[in-house]
Design brief:
single chain
C-alpha cells in the first residue's frame, strides 16, 4: 500500500487564535479573580486557582495539537506527528449529520474495535469505538476528508 496522503485537515489560523485566546483569557481571568478578589470561602479560592491553571494547561496542549494536522492515507488516519488515529479497515461508519455527537466542523468515525483514549484539543479525539475529527478546523477540509473516507468504505 502507498503512504500517499489523500486528504489533510489542519486548524485554520483565525479559529485557532480565537480558541487559544478564549482559553487563555478564561485561565487568566480565573487566576485574577482568585488572587485579586478572593471569595470568602477559601475552598472556592483553591477551586478557582486549580481551574485557572487547568485552563492555561489546556491552552498549551491545544497550541501544540493544532500546530499539526490530521492526514488520511489509503491505510490509516493519522496525526502529522505519526500517531495513528484509526486504521481504515477498522472504520465501520461515519457520521457528519447535524445531530451527530461530533466536533464542530468535523465528523465522527465508528470503529469495529475499542481503541485507547487519546485527545488532541481542537483537532481530534478518540474514546472507545468513536473518533471525532474537527474543532478549530475549516469545514471544507473536514467535509472533503469525510467524503474520501465514505468512498473508501463504499468500495470495500
Amino acid at each position: 500500500m502507498s503512504d500517499k496522503v489523500l486528504a489533510t485537515v489542519r486548524a485554520s489560523a483565525p479559529r485557532r487564535a480565537f480558541g487559544l485566546g478564549t482559553l487563555a483569557g478564561l485561565g487568566l481571568l480565573l487566576l485574577y479573580m482568585a488572587l485579586a478578589m478572593p471569595p470568602a470561602n477559601p475552598v472556592w479560592r483553591v477551586v478557582m486557582v486549580v481551574l485557572g491553571v487547568a485552563a492555561l494547561w489546556l491552552t498549551r496542549a491545544m497550541a501544540r495539537a493544532t500546530a499539526g494536522a490530521v492526514e488520511l492515507t489509503e491505510t490509516e488516519l493519522r496525526d502529522s506527528d505519526g500517531t495513528r488515529i484509526a486504521l481504515i479497515e477498522e472504520i465501520v461508519g461515519l457520521d457528519r449529520g447535524i445531530f451527530a455527537f461530533k466536533p464542530s466542523n468535523g465528523f465522527l468515525l465508528r470503529l469495529a474495535r475499542r481503541a485507547p483514549r487519546a485527545w488532541r484539543p481542537g483537532l481530534w479525539w478518540r474514546l472507545g469505538r468513536r473518533v471525532g475529527v474537527g474543532g478549530v478546523t475549516p469545514g471544507a477540509q473536514a467535509k472533503m476528508m469525510a467524503e474520501v473516507i465514505e468512498t473508501m468504505l463504499a468500495t470495500r
